[in-house]
Amino acid sequence: MQPVAVIDIGSNSMCLLVVARLRDGSLSAVAKHKHVARLRDAVDADGNLTGAGVERCLAALREFARVLENWQVGRVRAVATAALRAAGNGETLVELAARETGIHMDIISGAEEARLAYLGVRHGLGATAAGAILCADVGGGSSELLVGDGGAVLESVSTPLGALVVARTMLGPDPVGFAQVEHARGLLRDAFVEAAGLVGRHRIDLAVATSGTIQRVARIAQGLGGRTVDDVHRAVLTMPQLQMVIDALATAENQESRLKIASMDPQRADNLLGGALIFEAIAELLGLKSWTVSMDGLRMGVVSELAAAW
Any idea what DSSP says for residue 126? Predict the structure, then answer.
């Protein structure tokens, strides 16, 4: 059967995932492409995506369109999240992208983003995904929290704070140190207290964190412990480990210093601290002792729905 594909237009990066079904019925990624478009940083004072931001988005979609054609993809869904939800000219970009690239973007709500991330998490955890699961998805421009049990969504809440937003509006420019971190911690506790209260009304058997941010934090935690690990799927990240990474990031006062941290990703170095602090705030408000890391999230959630129609 023809492969299916998902395009994820996020605040920090734009990603394409092409998936094929193998003979045994399982799904396998056959192509992955990523552009660090930083759309959240391309919003002007009027709340519109700048011309440069529009062009970065279109350039990525043009390349993705060529990949889709090469793989003869049967079905594709392109979902846009916080950056285009917030942009006043988001729908104009949707029309322009369809006209110039043939790719039809769907600007999804925070609730839909959370639902798709939860589907992806459950798919990735397989048989271990029993009981009530808290799924936390921290992106560049927003954070989604969802509690689900089996196929039922019990609670879902979206907050317009992500790694890029925290880095730009709460931590500020370099040098960033512990004073800025403590300031951001206070703001984040206040910002997430309502969301945590909503999901905290439900039983939570497993707290799962998904996103590029938590994957990188988990890799850095392993690196600071003397190990180099790429596959952190299902890894358990304890609160002391998370705080160790936060301390390392806060000690590194500029980009050059951050890049020297073990297992650092250069494309996330300048905003990773913001995302780590969000996961810390959520965990503290809910009394969590650890996060289970998932390398599957929104994109796999979309793929699982597309594949169900094969």
Answer: G
According to DSSP, the β-strands at 143-149 and 132-138 are: antiparallel
What are the angstrom distances between the C-alpha of 181 and each of 197, 209, 242, 253, 274?
Answer: 23, 21, 14, 12, 9
Identity of residue 196 = A
Check if 4-108 and 128-298 are the same fold.
Answer: yes
**Fold of the CATH domain 128-298:** Nucleotidyltransferase; domain 5 (3.30.420)
**Domain boundaries of the chain, sorted by first residue:** 4-108, 128-298
pLDDT tens-place string over residues 14-24? 999 999 988 88
CATH superfamily of 4-108: ATPase, nucleotide binding domain (3.30.420.40)
DSSP three-state, residue 174:
coil
**Per-residue confidence band for 207, with pLDDT thresholds at 50, 70 and 90:** very high
Assign residue 126 a region: left if phi > 0, alpha if psi is -120 to 50, beta otherwise?
A: left
% helix, strand, coil for the chain, step of 5 = 50, 20, 30
pLDDT, averaged across the chain: 95
Q: Is 131 helix (H, G, I), strand (E, B) or coil?
A: coil
**74 near 63, Cβ under 8 Å?**
no
